[in-house]
């Protein structure tokens, strides 16, 4: 378990400075739509107190500000990602802080919303993370998870796998200069889709309402859990 934490942290520290460009380039810019759609489904408003976990360079949190959210915090265990987030967002409250997602240093019922974009897949203890989310949220608070998934359509799945297995790793490796990162991505997506049931895990953590939305032919999923 600890090995995965170290591996993921080192990997994201290494690719941080090309991360935004690669996200937009490799998804043909659709990742911007995915974030906006996920936050729209969450029905964020100006009164939200939002923690963006595994925030990376802050694109999800920055998009949330466009919904009128003023109280936004970011959390990630990659120092390089947080450094770039700070450079992009001088409006962030206080300083971004480095932490492990499973151990939120927060009091009970202090947040209205928690978001995680493409980060749950990298948690090394998802049930513990979801329990801590439940603890930190106010009543009716929501967790919004945006994550890759395997499409159910057979033809789309074939092209998806070809892109993820062959094209994406080559481009990612050339641009990021990291041999591991964009090989890890397709492998982790397939393993996650095969073995993790987010809806069940949210219910197990005590959430009362859980809904799932598939976007772009099922390439990504939005799961929203309400306390």
Plain-language structure description:
The chain has a single domain (2-152, 197-226), classed as Rossmann fold. The protein starts with a helix and ends with a strand. The chain has eight helices and seven strands, in the order H-H-E-H-E-H-E-E-H-E-H-H-H-E-E. With 227 residues, it is an alpha/beta fold. Helix 1 (2-26) packs parallel to helix 4 (79-88), helix 2 (30-42) packs across helix 3 (59-65) and helix 6 (154-176) runs antiparallel to helix 7 (181-195). Helices cover 49% and strands 20% of the residues. It has a seven-stranded mixed β-sheet, with helices on both faces. Strand 6 (209-215) and strand 7 (220-226) form a beta hairpin. The protein has helices at residues 2-26, 30-42, 59-65, 79-88, 126-136, 154-176, 181-195, 198-204, and strands at residues 49-53, 71-76, 97-98, 111-117, 137-148, 209-215, 220-226.
Strand-helix topology:
Blueprint: H1 2-26, H2 30-42, E1 49-53, H3 59-65, E2 71-76, H4 79-88, E3 97-98, E4 111-117, H5 126-136, E5 137-148, H6 154-176, H7 181-195, H8 198-204, E6 209-215, E7 220-226
Parallel strand pairs: 1-2, 1-4, 2-3, 4-5
Antiparallel strand pairs: 5-7, 6-7
């Amino acid at each position: 378990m600890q090995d995965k934490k170290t591996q993921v942290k080192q990997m994201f520290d290494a690719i941080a400075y090309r991360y935004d460009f690669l996200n937009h380039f490799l998804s043909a810019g659709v990742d911007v739509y995915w974030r906006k759609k996920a936050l729209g489904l969450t029905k964020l408003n100006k009164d939200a107190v939002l923690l963006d976990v595994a925030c990376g360079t802050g694109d999800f949190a920055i998009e949330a500000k466009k919904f009128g959210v003023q109280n936004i915090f970011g959390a990630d265990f990659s120092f390089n990602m947080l450094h770039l987030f700070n450079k992009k967002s001088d409006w962030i409250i206080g300083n971004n802080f480095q932490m492990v997602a499973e151990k939120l240093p927060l009091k009970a019922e202090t947040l209205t919303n928690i978001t995680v974009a493409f980060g749950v897949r990298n948690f090394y203890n998802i049930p513990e993370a979801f329990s801590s989310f439940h603890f930190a949220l106010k009543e009716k608070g929501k967790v919004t998870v945006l994550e890759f998934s395997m499409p159910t359509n057979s033809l789309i799945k074939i092209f998806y796998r070809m892109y993820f297995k062959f094209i994406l790793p080559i481009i990612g490796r050339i641009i990021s200069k990291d041999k591991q990162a964009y090989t890890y991505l397709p492998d982790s997506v397939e393993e996650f889709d095969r073995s993790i049931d987010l809806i069940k895990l949210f219910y197990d953590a005590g959430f009362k309402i859980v809904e799932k939305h598939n976007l772009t032919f099922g390439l990504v999923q939005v799961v929203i859990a309400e306390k």
